[in-house]
Each structure stands twice: as structure tokens, then as C-alpha cells.
């Protein structure tokens, strides 16, 4: 490994990083959510905002649906996260507490608006 590479388990920082507080999340969730049609496969399920947990291979119709689900989980478990990267195809988060190992990476399917964790 050379000096510019980091071990794969560490989330890379970037200039787009910003902090969400619980106040931001409460304001976001209070705007409401209209759930769309459900999509299912044998390994994945679509989550609506009253989710209990997030898991690998979970599908969301749109990036906004996933963001709202994340916000509800964060409120429920009372922690804060940083957005490490957010664009049209990738959404990467990490817990702001150095002792917290929680993180999330989701990507958009090439052929649709669906995001998968």
C-alpha cells in the first residue's frame, strides 16, 4: 500500500462532507412522505419510512426514499452522521462519533432510479 491509499474499511473524506443533526432530521421527517408502489425480489424489499432497520440489498424506489428511511433510523437510535459522498449515483454516510462503526453506502442501478444499500 502506498502513502495515498487507505485501507478499504476506512471511509474517505471529501469536501462535500456535511453534518446532520437531530434537529435537521426532525425537520426533514416532519415534511411527510408519500410511499410509492412496492418492489420486491427474493433477496430485497422496499422500505417505507416506518422502517425498523436497514440492511444490505435493501431497495428504495428513489434516493429520497432511502434518505428519509435513514433519517428515521438515526432519530430512533439517537446518533448523528456525516454525508461523505452524495451525488446522482452514490450515497455514502458515516457516524460522526469516532467510536461508532456505523456506515452506509448505497448505489443507484444504471437502468432505473432505484437505490440499493
Automatic annotation (TrEMBL):
InterPro entries: Transposase_MuDR (IPR004332)
Segments forming domain Transposase MuDR plant: 55-117
Superkingdom of the source species: Eukaryota
Protein's name in the database: Transposase MuDR plant domain-containing protein
Organism: Abeliophyllum distichum
